[in-house]
Amino acid sequence: MVNGTVVIAGIFFFLFGIVIGSFLNVCITRIPEEISIISPGSRCPQCGTPIKPYDNVPVFAWMWLKGKCRTCGAPISVMYPLVELATGLLFVAAFLEYGLTQATVKWLFFACLILILTVTDLRVRLLPDLVTWPGFAAGLLFSAFVPPNTGFAANLSWRLLHQRLQENAAGFLDGLLGAAFGSFLLWGLAVVYKAVRKREGMGMGDVKMMAMVGAFVGLRGTFWTILLGSLLGSVIGLSVVAGLYLGGWKKRLAERASRRGLGKESALRWTIASQCQLPLGTFLGIGALTIVYGGPLLAKNWPSLREIFG
Question: What is the mean pLDDT of residues 127-156?
């Protein structure tokens, strides 16, 4: 039976989360445009009319306005309530997993940063330095007080120097190692991809994002984030390319190129479809949230996975 106090606290975390989610929407839409996230207040992007407080209630306002501006009737993106709802649910998940602890504060902060980056990259293919660099610094600071669950730095210090690091120093070093591993791995892959394919495969934003993620989750969490994010990106990417190909995307362009002797139409259509680039940062963000929030749950239910996610 669920404790009544837990239910009340969960409701509070959800309501607090959707309010924070509303602020994350401001960051997502304004930071790429280099507009202040403080002022001016919320307004319709089409007609510029300031949004009244009763029309700015997270999640629910979008529902009673039926996804349209009250003044001009322009559609309001479903992104806004989805981000708010996702933030609320992540806040509840953090509370249920970590309780009222420092770890909850760390992972709530992490979730907010990841949501901003994930959605921004999906919208405009950008991972802003204004988020990744402060996030990297915050990750190291948090890891000093709430160390990643790896213990890698402490074990390394004992094996190499036969000295035991203090918990704060070990956590900080774990975060630093995770940041170095994630950023240098992606940077190396980007260099190799460019050398082989003669074009950019990923931007430096992905590298900086993984430095931030690594600072929070440590070496092991970084490895699994990259593995899961890359796998997810590959599966969805191939599905999108196949869908574009089967749907006849740019078919006329391929036909014209084929008539000019540039190749077979089917091969040209596949080549054109394969040029579609998906945001790697979005998939890395999903992977990071899955590791942080889903990992402990998997470890609890399947003890054999504790060495991976515990």
Answer: 86
